[in-house]
Structure formats: structure tokens, C-alpha cells
Amino acid sequence: MIDRRTFLTATGRAAAGALVMSPVMRAMAQSRGKQVMVGGNEVVVVDIHAHCLFQEVRPIIEGTPLENAPLQDMLVLGQHRIDNLDERGIDIAALSVNRFWWYDATEEQAEAIVRINDEGLAEWCATHSDRFVPMSSPALQFPEMAAEQLEYAVTELGHRGASILGHARGEAPSTEKYDPFWAKAEELGVPVFMHPDGSRNIIQPGALDGTGGLGNVIGNPLETTLFLSRMIFDGAFDRFPNLKVVAAHGGGYLPSYLGRSEVACARNNANCVNTKNPSEYLRTQILVDTMVFNEEGLRHLVAVAGASQVVYGSDMPFAWPDTIDLVVDSPSLSDEEKVAILGGNLIELLRLDV
């Protein structure tokens, strides 16, 4: 990290490893924009859930079945993204390219697309190393290649983890077919951020069309719930006990309906492979972001998962309410828990040099 990160002090270190700001750092932050305060101290805020893309992939897909990929201009990186961080009071964002349209690519296309995305992210984050870190988005549909892409991104480009969809061409990535990828993530000691895409692998076409944006509002958490449930019941977390997965949108419905999952394996013909209760994975290997938008939702996440498993997510640049103030103002959380959720947990998970 550049010099402004060296001004952080260990004064007020929380158990989760978060740091509060020194007076010099605080003065620099004040010149940028919003300051986030907990217990009278300004704290470091780290975002796990930030979208982007690189238009440089377009020549690879022109004239192919992928040519209508959602390469939205709003996701292209620029100074406005730094301004957005300042406005919200975010210090560091973990960026990922996570629309995952390249899961339908050929192996040759997928190799080229992921290379452009990963190297583009590395270049942007190196230029703005005090504000961003990169997360690779490998081609999960080819598990062996995805493992190689992740290793290159982490060891050669400085990426801090991976971002994946909840399925690969409709397949749950919890079976042994995908073990090469999970093994590599565990070996490298990096987290995997799982972001859904509207439950296209679950819901019949058109079922969530119409008013309310239900493909996002219902489809996204549903896909996340299925992904996490498969990872638990198919034994993926047992095969890779040191693996850490961060699930977007509060972990979907799993934390909210955990009791039903807890009793699932005791029923006839459940055929579960997991060796522990779902709640144990939620408290050790699964982390969830703060995008639940109300105090009761946040309180419940911490109650069932623990403050160590909850991290801040913004979903920038998409238009969702920010949850920094939700955490700061929460009457159910201690100051230590707030500091951990806002940044401390991710400082440790992403091994940030702050």
C-alpha cells in the first residue's frame, strides 16, 4: 500500500484485526469525504462487493455467440469510482468482474477473456493501490483451467481471491469435478466471493419477469442459498476445510431459514455428505456481506453466523442503499463488532497491508 496506509496505528485494534485511524490519516480522510466513526474513532472500511468490467474483451467476442455480452459502460472503471468511495467513506474496495457471461465461452475464448480481465484489474489496482485490490474471475466451467488462472492471478498479478457464479452452465460447483479449483483456492489461502446472476439455473425462463425486479430481488438470494447448501450437503467444505467463501447479499436465504437446513439431514433419503451441522460451516467457512438493509436482518446475521463472518459490501456501482451507517448505528452490535464488520474481517481475509 502507498504511504497513507502507513499512517494507520494499532491503537484501538479490535480482536478481528481492524485498525482505527491515526490523526494524520484522519486529516487525509477528511479531505476526501465522509468519515466513518465508531466509538469516537475513525475506522477503516473495506468493501468486498464491487463490480467492474473491461471493454477490451469486445474484439474476442465480436461475431460469436457471446457478442451481446452485457458490457455496460457504467461498469467501466474511472475517477468516478474513487469519488464514490470518498462519498461513502470506503477506504478499500475489492474489485471483481462478475457478470460471468464468459462461462458460455469456448476454452480458448475463456482463457483470453479472463486474462484481459485479470490483467486489467491488476493494472488498475496497482495504479490506485491505496484504494483497490483485485479479485480474479476465472472460467469455472473448466475447473483445471480455472485453477491455473487463479494461481496466475494470485501469484503473478497480486489478486487477493476469486469471484465465481453460483453455478457453471447449470452445474453446481460442489461436486468433485470442481475440486481442482477449490483445492487451488485453499492451497493459495485466498477467499472465493460468490455472486449470483438471477437464479437462471433454477427458475424457468420468464418466471421472475415483470415488475419488482424479481430476478434480482428473489433470484439472486435464491441462487446463493442453493450454492451454499450444495457446498455444505455435497461435502465440498469438508473436502476443503480451510476454504473460505464469501456469499453476496447476506448469504441469501440460508441464514434466515437456517433451522430448516439444520434438520434436513436427519430426514429419510436426505443422503447428506456433510459431517457437521450447516451452522458450523456458517460460523467458520462461510462469510456473508451486509446487504440486508435493515437492523433486524443485520442483527440476525450476526446472531447466527457471528460478527467474524459478516463483512461490508456495497454492490457499487449499482443503486442499492449503503449499509455503512446501518452497521455504525446498530444498537445490537458492540463497537468491536462494528469495526470488525466494516473492515477488520476483510483486512485479515484479504491480507491487506494496512
Describe the structure.
Helix 6 (143-157) packs parallel to helix 7 (179-188). The N and C termini lie close together (7 Å). This protein has helices at 3-6, 23-32, 58-61, 79-88, 107-127, 143-157, 179-188, 214-217, 219-233, 236-239, 258-264, 278-282, 295-305, 324-328, 335-349; strands spanning 37-38, 41-42, 46-51, 92-96, 132-135, 162-164, 192-194, 245-247, 286-289, 310-311. The chain has 15 helices and ten strands. The strands form three sheets. A five-stranded parallel beta sheet has the order 6-7-8-9-10. A three-stranded parallel beta sheet has the order 3-4-5. The model is unreliable at 1-18 (pLDDT under 50). It has one domain (3-349): Alpha-Beta Barrel (TIM Barrel). With 354 residues, it is α/β, with parallel strands linked by helices.
